[in-house]
Amino acid sequence: MSEDFLPHLFEEFSREHSSTETKVEGTGLGMPIVKQLVGILGGSIDVISKKGVGTTVEVILPHRIADKDDCYEKIDRSVDTSLFNGKKILLAEDNELNAEIAMEILKESGFIIEHVWNGIEAVEAVRKNDYDLVLMDIQMPKMNGYEATVAIRKLNDKQKAAVPIVAMTANAFEEDKREAYRSGMDGHIAKPINVKDILVQLSKILRKSI
Hints:
The protein is α/β, with parallel strands linked by helices. It is built from 8 helices and 7 strands. Helix 3 (96-108) links the parallel strand 3 (88-92) and strand 4.
């Protein structure tokens, strides 16, 4: 890529050449997602590029030096990943970048993902389909996550009305958590998403629903 494009490399929906020019499909979200994930891990990413010559990407991630005890395999018993394979999750999220990140994490863990953009679409999706779990953003247009959860709990189909629902939101205060449970939710995950935290939470909830 050209040096002129580098300042825009990590901007959402930014591409040096359109799909019309290159015939390569893409949303321009790949590098912003990479940068956010590297940031979550406390690292940095730098790119040097010259058109016609090549591109160098340097990712630096902090990591402590292992001692003798760390050389033995440690298994996190709180995450039963066998529960995830083939489980169907509905993700209600109106931010495209957040949705892309969440879907990548969940797909890598074995989940089947469907995505909707607001609370109204979430209620309708649950009414029409069967899901093992719903990940619900709170601040969405048309109908927020609390309202959507209340509507789902009132569905005539009792099995669908009882689907586990987990709040996924930047509102991490205790009052927000209490509001999530009052509306009928089963759990609360704070943003930005921590991979281990979300898998631990989902594992606990899926174990309860078996």
